[in-house]
């Protein structure tokens, strides 16, 4: 299976990638009806898709449970069998979708033999997934703030999970706390995503890859070394220079 096929498979798992009324997930009545567990799982998937698309279209504050049910082709009683309310459903969609993104990033990161290339590939996976499912991008990045304290807590927990991609960074000179720098970098990446998505440039998110890659590495390697290791300056043969594992001696003093 090639990278494009894998990417498409991951994208389709994101809530909002399909319509809630997707005929392929219709539930047929009668004696040959699917088992109750399968029916419940299908209805949940449809509700998550319906919620994401409704929230992306109307905004969290204006989206109602009835709107979500209509988008999913599911009744209100079924909705309340799955979720306690709109906030509960939103957080479930957010957790499921961001879990998909994190796993795809982790797989891309682990496929590389060094940290520099791993960071670039992980960022690329994230940008491709969000660009491929704009409704989820809008719901997860923009509308999460409208949920209130529970949404902000969910976002902070998500950003904390991104720290794992910076486990290999070297110590910084002058007693600068590495974790504080990592948190600032992660926050900056999130801010860039917010600006592009909120301004209607979700489909262009992959264009951010060179900037975000450099932004993630420069605080630890210095901008020049980071640019070289990321292959920002192409050689005359058109190939990127190799990106080897970080040695603390390579950091700028």
State the main characteristics.
0% strand; mainly alpha; elongated; 253 residues; disordered C terminus; Tetracycline Repressor, domain 2
In short:
The chain is an all-alpha fold and 253 residues long. Helix content is 62%, strand content 0%.
The CATH superfamily bears the name Tetracycline Repressor, domain 2
Shape, please? elongated
Helix/strand-derived category reads mainly alpha
Helicity, as a percent range: 55-70%
Number of helices: 11
Q: Which spans have pLDDT < 50 for at least 5 consecutive residues?
A: 5-11, 232-253
- Kindly report the average pLDDT value: 85
What are the secondary-structure elements, in order, as H or E?
Answer: HHHHHHHHHHH
Strand content is under 5%
What is the highest CATH level, the class?
Mainly Alpha
Distance between the termini: 44 Å
Largest sheet data: none
Alpha-carbon Rg, integer? 21 Å
Overall structural domain count: 1
The name CATH uses for the topology is Tetracycline Repressor, domain 2
Count of extended strands: 0
CATH architecture: Orthogonal Bundle
């Amino acid at each position: 299976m090639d990278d494009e096929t894998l990417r498409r498979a991951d994208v389709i798992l994101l809530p909002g990638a399909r319509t809630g009324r997707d005929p392929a997930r219709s539930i047929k009545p009668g004696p040959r009806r699917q088992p109750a567990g399968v029916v419940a799982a299908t209805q949940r998937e449809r509700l998550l898709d319906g919620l994401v698309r409704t929230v992306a279209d109307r905004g969290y504050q204006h989206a109602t449970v009835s709107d979500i049910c209509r988008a999913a082709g599911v009744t209100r009683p079924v909705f309340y069998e799955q979720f306690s309310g709109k906030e509960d459903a939103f957080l479930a969609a957010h957790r499921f979708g961001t879990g998909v993104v994190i796993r795809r990033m982790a797989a891309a990161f682990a496929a590389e033999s060094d940290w520099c290339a791993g960071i670039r590939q992980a960022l690329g996976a994230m940008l491709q997934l969000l660009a491929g499912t704009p409704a989820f991008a809008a719901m997860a990045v923009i509308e999460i703030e409208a949920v209130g304290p529970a949404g902000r807590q969910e976002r902070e927990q998500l950003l904390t999970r991104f720290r794992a991609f910076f486990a290999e960074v070297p110590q910084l000179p002058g007693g600068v706390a590495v974790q504080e720098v990592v948190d600032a970098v992660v926050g900056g990446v999130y801010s860039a995503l917010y600006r592009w998505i909120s301004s209607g440039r979700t489909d262009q998110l992959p264009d951010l890859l060179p900037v975000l890659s450099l932004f993630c590495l420069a605080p630890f390697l210095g901008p020049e070394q980071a640019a070289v290791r990321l292959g920002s300056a192409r050689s005359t043969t058109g190939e990127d220079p190799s990106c080897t594992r970080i040695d603390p001696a390579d950091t700028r003093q």
